Amino acid sequence: MPFVEVGELRTHYALTGDKEPVLVFSNSLGTDFSMWDPQVPELQSRFRILRYDTRGHGQSSVTPVDYTIEQLGRDVLGLLDSLHLDRVHFCGLSMGGMIGMWLGIHEPERLHRLVLSNTAARIGTKEMWNARIATVRKDGMKTVAAAVIERWFTPGFRASFAETVARAQRMIENSPPEGYAACCAAIRDMDQREAVAQIKAPTLVIYGGSDPVTPGSDAQFLTDRIRGAVKVELAAAHLSNVEQADAFTEAVSNFLAR
Question: 56-91 b/e with 16+ CB inside 10 Å = b?
Fold first, then answer.
C-alpha cells in the first residue's frame, strides 16, 4: 500500500476503484483502515474509495506529543491535497466522525456529503480519558482491549461471530500505545457541541441502538443541530459498520445517491 508524506507525518492509505466522486473513510480509535473492509466491495463499484490510517494508528506515523482533532482534520486535508482531490464525500466512525465534524465546520468547500457514524460532538470526561491514557502508557494495549470489545459489539454478535470479534481485538492490541494515547487526548480535549450547527454539507447520522459509547441521544443532538441532517438507527453497538455491515453500507449508499 502507498504512503504520503506531509511534514513529519507519513500517512498510509489505499485508493481503489475508478468511479467519481471519491468517498473517504476515517477509522475509529484503536483501528486501522481495514475496519472498512466490509464496505469496500459494494461501494467501490460506485465511488473511488480512499481509506487511510489516522495519525498514530496502523502504519501511519506515531508522532510525539498529544494530538488534537484539528490536527487530525488537517492531516486529512494534507492527504487530499497530496492526491490532488478537491471535494469528497466523507464517512467517519467515532473518532473519524469527530474529524468529519471538524472538516464540515472549518473546510466546508472540501465536502460533498458527510456521514457521521457512532460519534458525538463530545465524548466522555477528562478524568475518564486521562485514566485510559495512563493505563495504556503504563501497561500497553492488551490491558484495555477486552473492555473496548465489549463496547464495540453486542453480546449476541460476540457470541455468533467469534472470529470477527477476535480479529477486531487483535487490531486493538496491535495499535501503537503512544499513538492510541495521543488520540485519546484529542478526543478528551474536543468539544464541538456549539460549532456543529455550522455544518452545511448534507449529513447522515448513523447510530447503534445498543451503543454504550455514543447512544441515540448523541445522534439526536447532532441531528437537531445540523440543518437538514437525517439519522438512521442500526441494531448494533459501537462498531456498527462491522456488526451490521450490509445495513450500514446500504444506508451510506442510499444517502450518497440522493
Answer: bbbebbbbeebbbbebbbbbbebbbeebebeebbbb
**How many residues does this entry show for the chain?**
258
Compute the distance between CA of residue 100 and CA of residue 118 in angstroms, rounded to an integer.
12
Give me the number of domains the chain comprises: 1
State CA 15 to chain mean position distance: 17
* Coil vs helix vs strand at 18: coil
CATH (domain of 252): 3.40.50.1820
Instruction: Please provide residue 25's backbone torsions phi and psi, each rounded to the nearest 5 degrees.
Output: -110, 130
Cα separation, 60 vs 37, in Å, equals: 18
Beta bridge partners of 4: 11
240, 207 Cβ separation under 8 angstroms: yes
Domain that holds residue 199: 3-256
Task: Take residue 191 and report the three cell numbers written for it.
Answer: 468539544
Tens of pLDDT along 165-215? 999 999 999 999 999 999 999 999 999 999 999 999 999 999 999 999 999
Strand locations in the chain (E): 3-6, 9-16, 22-26, 48-52, 88-93, 111-117, 203-208, 230-234
